[in-house]
Write a structure and sequence with these properties.
The complex is a heterodimer of chains A (352) and B (303). With 352 residues, chain A is an all-alpha fold. Helix content of chain A is 76%, strand content 0%. In chain A, helix 4 packs across helix 11. Chain A starts with a helix and ends with a helix. Chain B is an all-alpha fold. Helix content of chain B is 71%, strand content 1%. Chain B has 12 helices and 2 strands. A two-stranded antiparallel sheet of chain B has the order 1-2. In chain B, helix 6 packs across helix 7 and helix 10 runs parallel beside helix 12. Chain B is globular. Classes of the chains: A mainly alpha (352), B mainly alpha (303). Chains A and B meet through helix 6, helix 11 and helix 13 of A and helix 4, helix 10 and helix 12 of B.
């Protein structure tokens, strides 16, 4: 087990470095010095209090969407629709917050977001359980439906009073998530995200429900014969996954943007999947992987403003890192296989 | 009305390229989940090739090349490194989105006016295009559309009437048997993925140089996934893919019609979401799916 963890950390570190290296080569295409660019990237991240705080601000929603993917992944289900569940969460968060801007209502917002985005997700699990529908496809399609719904509401019911742009009125400050540190944008949502990661870890590895979810993921048929209602597990897993993604909407609306507008965080779902891959779907690993990606996003944004390097270099880095991490899985499996063979040989040797 | 249907069929062209090649690949057991990225890089490379050379044909060749390379990366990781198809596809899609927007900037900087190329021309087929009603719909389209008249039957014949088709179908149903017959399963799968890269590249180029005449990073916007869905809904059959594509084309036509007719009793967004809602409904309501038995499973020879 120990050797396995060492393999994961080592190989993923190499994969991240390789990803950065190849992105550096791409910077050469712009006739810029990659070393200078990376220097700028890293110094931008830690330029001041504000940027350091922003690393964790950016990591917050990513933790939620990564958890959303990882959680269903443990049940061998694919929730590619975290983006849509995020939109639903954001919609509910902004609607309730505009209606009840009092401080006490934060809890109400939280509960309603969890319920609504959870149900949006559970519907996918239900389709899987009841009709054996392909959850991958349905969750993917549900994102576009949620997006259309959001755009419609932004244009009609939720449209700002000025009626100029497709966006909502700003939220009153009383309904904002409280700040953690003065001089930064860091808000309580970050704590919520870390607690969610820890909570999901406990749920998966220390509770009966978590055991059932993993059993269904490991071998659905065997789990079913041993009396686990797999359909119910599919629905439960998708409910939890959906509500996690919805919480990203809550923290982004009430913690960062304080309003909802068109084109709101369009890639948060897919980056979450990448983070879950990097973290090997481990909830604790997701905390660190999200902070890494958060840092890349902060550094990249400032780099884009201060140099001639476009901030799309960040998407490039994220993409290369993910692809190398996946290749790393192969190396890891090979190492694991060799280790098993060695162990078998040793045991045989011992017998003789 | 005629214009609308003609436009609907034109807009379905790339979906059919995508879903036909997805059918071939999935029959070998390979979901090409990188299809969204392949469409995107096809759109980008097609535009760049056409813009730099001034020739749309070169643009389409570039699109095929870029699609091929992307598919090769996807195939290598999923077939030879045996990694998960959905996970790998997601990562590649993110990578391609980054590559396209970054390289677009490298090549063109930040242009002051949108860069455009002249789109593929409509070629009216002599005589046929003057048939009332169906003439303007079927016979006044661009070259990529006409190629489908060959491509659909060709895929059908290859898949069901040839030894190659048998190898393709068996690779997804019973790879051990294919192996015993002395055919390399991995190679069959890899070639099928490469084929879907070529076709997906063409499909992407259709959006940039065939239709819009320009490239934006949101040009594909889930259309690759629709082609992917059509393959499922068409029951992994080229004819099914054709029917599915036509249904999608008609929904799109309906959406355009409702939008342009100025009716405000139903929101625009409903029609934009219609193809996706339709996919969900069809996915749930289809009972007898003919899923290739080994779809999504890497092949490992017994040792």
């Amino acid at each position: 087990m120990k050797g396995k963890l060492r393999d994961i950390l080592l190989i993923n570190a190499v994969a991240v470095l390789l990803g950065l290296f190849v992105s550096g080569l791409m910077i050469l295409l712009l006739k810029k010095n990659p070393l200078e660019a990376f220097g700028l990237l890293f110094t931008s991240m830690v330029r001041d209090r504000y940027t350091i705080g922003d690393i964790f601000v950016k990591a917050t929603p990513l933790m939620f969407t990564a958890l959303a993917f990882a959680f269903t992944y443990k049940a061998n289900l694919f929730n590619i629709g975290a983006q849509g569940q995020f939109y639903i969460g954001a919609l509910v968060a902004v609607s309730v917050s505009l209606r009840f801007p009092q401080k006490w209502a934060l809890l109400l917002v939280l509960v309603l977001v969890v319920l609504s985005s959870g149900l949006w997700g559970a519907a996918i699990g239900y389709a899987k359980a009841k009709f054996k529908a392909n959850e991958f496809l349905i969750s993917m399609m549900s994102t576009y439906v949620a997006l259309a719904l959001m755009n419609y509401l932004l244009r009609t019911r939720l449209l700002e009073t000025k009626g100029e742009y497709p966006q909502t009125d700003p939220l009153l400050e009383s309904i904002w998530l409280p700040k953690l540190l003065a001089g930064t944008r860091l808000h309580v949502g970050f704590i919520l995200a870390v607690v969610a990661c820890l909570g999901i870890w406990v749920l998966l590895y220390k509770t009966a429900l978590g055991f059932r979810i993993r059993a269904v993921g490991y071998n659905g048929e065997a789990a079913a014969t041993s009396g686990i209602n797999t359909g119910r597990i599919h629905i439960a897993a998708f409910f939890i996954s959906g509500s996690l993604a919805g919480l990203a909407g809550f923290t982004e609306v009430n913690g960062v943007q304080h309003m909802l507008l068109q084109g709101f965080n369009p890639d948060i779902g897919s980056i979450g999947i990448g983070i879950a891959i990097l973290a090997n779907a481990n909830p604790i690993g997701i905390i660190f992987a999200s902070i890494l990606f958060g840092a890349l996003r902060v550094g990249g944004q400032i780099m884009g403003q201060r140099s001639q390097i476009p901030s799309s270099i960040i998407d490039l880095m994220q993409g290369f890192v993910m692809v190398f991490v996946i290749m790393g899985y192969f190396v890891r499996n090979e190492l694991d296989r060799k280790r098993k063979i060695r162990k078998l040989l040793l045991e045989e040797g011992g017998v003789q | 009305m005629i214009n609308l249907l003609a436009r609907a069929l034109m807009m379905s062209t790339p979906l059919l390229y995508g879903s036909l090649s997805e059918v071939i690949a999935e029959r070998t057991g390979m979901m090409v989940t990188a299809i969204e990225g392949i469409f995107l890089i096809g759109a980008w490379a097609g535009f760049v090739g056409a813009y730099q050379s001034g020739s749309l044909a070169i643009g389409i060749l570039c699109a095929m090349g870029a699609g091929l390379m992307t598919a090769a990366l996807y195939g290598w990781i999923t077939i030879y490194l045996k990694q998960h198809q959905i996970v790998t596809g997601t990562a590649i899609n993110i990578l391609i989105a980054g590559v396209c927007s970054f390289l677009q900037r490298v090549i063109f900087g930040v242009p002051l006016v949108p860069l455009t190329v002249v789109q593929l021309k409509q070629i009216p087929i002599p005589l046929l295009h003057s048939i009332p009603f169906i003439g303007p719909i079927l016979f006044k389209q661009n070259i990529l559309f006409y190629l489908l008249f060959l491509l659909v039957p060709a895929t059908y014949v290859v898949l069901y009437k040839t030894a190659l088709g048998l190898a393709i179908r068996s690779a997804g149903e019973n790879p051990e048997a294919v192996d015993v017959a002395g055919i390399n399963v991995k190679r069959v799968r890899f070639l099928a993925v490469l084929f879907s890269g070529l076709m997906g590249g063409v499909a992407g180029a259709f959006y940039s140089i065939g239709y819009l005449g320009m490239f934006t990073t949101s040009i594909i916007n889930g259309r690759g996934w629709i082609a992917f869905a059509i393959c499922f809904l068409g029951n992994w059959n080229p004819i099914g893919a054709l029917v599915g594509t036509i249904i999608f084309g008609l929904t799109e036509a309906l959406a355009i019609f409702m939008q342009s007719s100025g009716g405000t009793f139903l929101p625009n967004e409903l029609f934009i979401a219609l193809p996706y809602i339709l996919t969900i409904i069809l996915t749930i309501s289809r009972r007898s799916f003919n899923v290739p038995a080994k779809l999504g499973t890497p092949y490992e020879k017994e040792q």
